[in-house]
Amino acid sequence: xxxxxxxxxxxxxxxxxxxxxxxxxxxxxxxxxxxxxxxxxxxxxxxxxxxxxxxxxxxxxxxxxxxxxxxxxxxxxxxxxxxxxxxxxxxxxxxxxxxxxxxxxxxxxxxxxxxxxxxxxxxxxxxxxxxxxxxxxxxxxxxxxxxxxxxxxxxxxxxxxxxxxxxxxxxxxxxxxxxxxxxxxxxxxxxxxxxxxxxxxxxxxxxxxxxxxxxxxxxxxxxxxxxxxxxxxxxxxxxxxxxxxxxxxxxxxxxxxxxxxxxxxxxxxxxxxxxxxxxxxxxxxxxxxxxxxxxxxxxxxxxxxxxxxxxxxxxxxxxxxxxxxxxxxxxxxxxxxxxxxxxxxxxxxxxxx
Length: 353
Known about the structure:
Blueprint: E1 6-11, H1 17-25, E2 30-36, H2 40-49, E3 54-56, H3 59-63, E4 70-73, H4 80-89, E5 93-97, H5 104-117, E6 121-124, H6 131-141, E7 148-158, H7 167-183, E8 189-195, E9 205-211, E10 217-223, E11 225-237, E12 241-245, E13 253-264, E14 269-278, H8 287-299, H9 309-327, E15 333-334
Parallel strand pairs: 1-2, 1-4, 2-3, 4-5, 5-6, 7-10
Antiparallel strand pairs: 7-11, 8-9, 8-15, 9-10, 11-12, 12-13, 13-14
Helix pairs in contact: 1-8, 4-5, 5-9, 6-7, 7-9
């Protein structure tokens, strides 16, 4: 990695912004130069913890600062396109917190702006930098699990209810980004059902299903309205099965040597395999820290973004298709609209990692 220090400005010091600021402050080769937020109380909290960081209520001051090489945007979804386009126009590299945008048109516009500016665009899909997620990806890539039959995920909790978008847009980007990264293919159809129980027209529970060209299906249960916190994903393959549970630090990934060996319809006999359970060792490095290091590497030209604009657009496309399905009573809808731009998949394997 280059010895040049990257000056970073952060726009948004609300829920997730402070985590980005802290991770950047701990990232070699990066320096948080300025933070912008409309709330002076939030800025006061930042100044108390990071006295050397300049703060402002006007993001344009941050954009025009020559010491700022890159901008991290951690603001409401509806502001992502405008702020990203402003940052690229100012010659900055850009990190946008998930999801990239609230619709595919805005996501495409952000990607085009990054290409015109010839600057790095990265999306905050933090889970693809999670060592446990990468461990499962390695199992799939090396054929340990065999052909993937299906993926089943639960991401539920009691709260935090949002007021301007539903649980699909809040929690969905996590599971969709993980599933697309694991399978290395785009879906051909999307189906989504849900209900709004607490706030009118803002669904607090949804069930999202995707179908893939390989024949695999993936399902995600997303909810702000559940008695306990669950972060569990099951991958069932033709050879073995894996469970990724982010709430179990000691055993976040378990590989089960279980499956169906053979079925004889003529003799009405079934043969099942119930072998050992293995828990791979998972590095303890914080995913957000890895993500920020990768952002610096990409700016310095040492890597291609693993969660770049195209990856972010694919996630938005799934969510947008999910909304079309949700608003039509759960009908199965095509993932891609004819004539839409087709992004290329970028994986750790394709960038030589």
